[in-house]
């Protein structure tokens, strides 16, 4: 309940632009944590993350004296969507703001990604990889390109319990290169390709080879992701590294249609996506 009152109060302060000022407490705000010293007894430090004027995440931390909040740990998905942060200190016995807010830009973590030179390229026969690609798009702001087969796969084509189905025939032929409808016009503009596919027979479908054959990706970073019934992504990453010897192929991410944003964000951060985006 207390939390909701605070959320409401922070929202009202934002709407009416009210930030009270006083001088007692001292804030330290970094891109991962906020701390306040000299907080009165029974205080609440609120960290609010914003994308422009939109509130994307909120977390509160209670204490007296020194209060530290680690919002990178507490709301990583919101952090990935945010470009600025405000910190409020509240004195709970009166439920009024005690101390001013502090604002810091989070350029290095996320805002740079909105105009990043990253492209999400994905193939999805039944929608799972597309769903994961959409999650990645929300977290990165990257452009998207769907690999659409010139000859769409029917249910029968994908029925891999049938040895002769189209998908199995393709996977049994290393030279198979199913045609793609359309193309990426401006591949030169992208430094990072987030490449998604379903796992077929332990690796990537042949249509991904068609895509790789169609562009010069040397010098670019390729970040592979996949969905599967249960198989991992490692084998396909090894294949990608041998095909794209002049690209930087990062560790891959295997998810499902409903993978959490925080898991995806962790992969993006661990593999330097946001640093690359802010350097671009
Ligand atoms: C031809 C074919 C082969 C498959 N092989 C595997 C496999 O080796 N391992 C696995 O875990 N899942 C396998 N699957 C399941 C898919 O990887 C899984 O359903 C995936 O999420 C589908 O993604 P999509 O909806 O984006 O097409 C296979 C599916 C098909 C159609």
Tell me what you see in this structure.
With 280 residues, the protein is of the alpha/beta class. It folds into 2 domains: 2-106, Immunoglobulin-like; 115-279, Rossmann fold (3-Layer(aba) Sandwich). Helix content is 33%, strand content 32%. It has 11 helices and 13 strands. It has helices at 2-16, 71-74, 76-81, 107-114, 128-140, 155-158, 166-171, 206-214, 234-243, 261-270, 273-279; strands at residues 26-29, 33-51, 54-70, 84-91, 96-105, 118-122, 143-146, 148-149, 180-181, 192-198, 221-227, 248-249, 253-255. The strands form 3 sheets. Strands 6, 7, 10, 11, 12 and 13 form a 6-stranded parallel sheet that branches. Strands 1, 2, 3, 4 and 5 form a 5-stranded antiparallel sheet that branches. A two-stranded antiparallel ribbon has the order 8-9. Strand 4 and strand 5 form a beta hairpin. Helix 4 (107-114) packs across helix 11 (273-279). The longest helix is centred in the first third of the chain and has 15 residues, at 2-16. The protein is elongated. It starts with a helix and ends with a helix. The model is unreliable at 14-23 and 108-115 (pLDDT under 50). It binds flavin mononucleotide. Flavin mononucleotide (FMN) binds next to helix 5.
Q: Tags for this entry?
A:
single chain; 280 residues; alpha/beta; Immunoglobulin-like; five-stranded antiparallel sheet; 11 helices; 33% helix
